[in-house]
Amino acid sequence: MPTYNDYGIILNSYDLGESDRILNIYTKENGLVRAVVKGARKTSSKFSGKVDQLSCCYFHFASGKNLDTVCDCEQVNSFSLLRSNLICLTSAVLFLEIVSNFAHEDEHDSHHIYDLLYVSLNRLQISPNPALESISFISKFLSLHGYKPQFETCVSCAAKTDLKPALSGSYPYSSILGGILCSNCSGTINSKSVNSQTLNILLNAGRDIPIEQLYNKQSLNNQNKNIRSVLELLREHLDVRAKNKIKSFDLVFSL
Ligand SMILES: [Zn+2]
Q1: pLDDT digits (tens, 9 = 90+) for 35-65
Q2: Statement to judge: residues 68 and 90 lie in one domain
Q3: How far is the CA of 156 from the centre of ligand 1 (A)?
Q4: Among residues 61, 77, 93, which one ends one of the domains?
């Protein structure tokens, strides 16, 4: 049976038979890997504590016809700080569900998504604002998949938009098409109005600048409503493009 090694983060898992567990793992080199861990639920298992959701491990796999097998694994990061904070943990589960919904087996270039997920989970552990961290993760994730919301030109006719997010005002935005509409197209295509503060947060999220450098504590307190609007906008954007609706948003919004 051929074997291979890879780094991976456990997206989710489910029980199989009396004591086995099946893992969906997002790996650095092979994209989505579905693998069984034999005897994982036995108290004496050598995998105990290592193969939970969110755990990052260096795996040794044996390839199978339908399902690979985890022969061994060494835990690299358990993200223990995330597990002790409900708001951070909920955001982390959101990241995993989003990755899971776009993941495929034998993906090329999966290391970009893997690295983004790993770095974002690490940052989330110590983030002053999990909601903004989520916006940053989702924006970068969408960019890597080529699904970034479009602002510079009209998403329908490609005419240049008069976007000036530094000023006040609002803009027509189509979630289905995934971007801003020009004044001509906004009359014929369903859109919602997005204010300039919301757009500013979204534009900042794509930049690789830590949240604490972009916003001070006071300005963050004033932005809560706009931060939520951005998350709602990104939820609609993802739901149109993902395999399934992203359910973890319900929990994120309920906290
Ligand atoms: Zn247009």
Answers
A1: 999 999 998 899 988 999 999 999 999 999 8
A2: no
A3: 5
A4: 77
ipTM of the complex: 0.99
Residue 68's beta-bridge partner residues? 35
Distance CA 132, CA 236 (A): 17
> Angle at CA 96, nearest 5°, toward 93 and 101?
125
- CATH number of the CATH domain containing 34: 2.40.50.140
Q: Is the pLDDT of residue 219 over 90?
A: no
Compute, in angstroms, the gap from residue 166 CA to the centroid of ligand 1. Answer: 22
For ligand 1, a single-atom ion, which residues have Cβ within 5 Å? 154, 156-157, 159, 182, 185
Q: Which of 77, 100, 118 is the last residue of a domain?
A: 77
Domain-embedded: residue 155 = no
Length of the chain: 255
Distance 205 CA to ligand 1 centre (A): 25
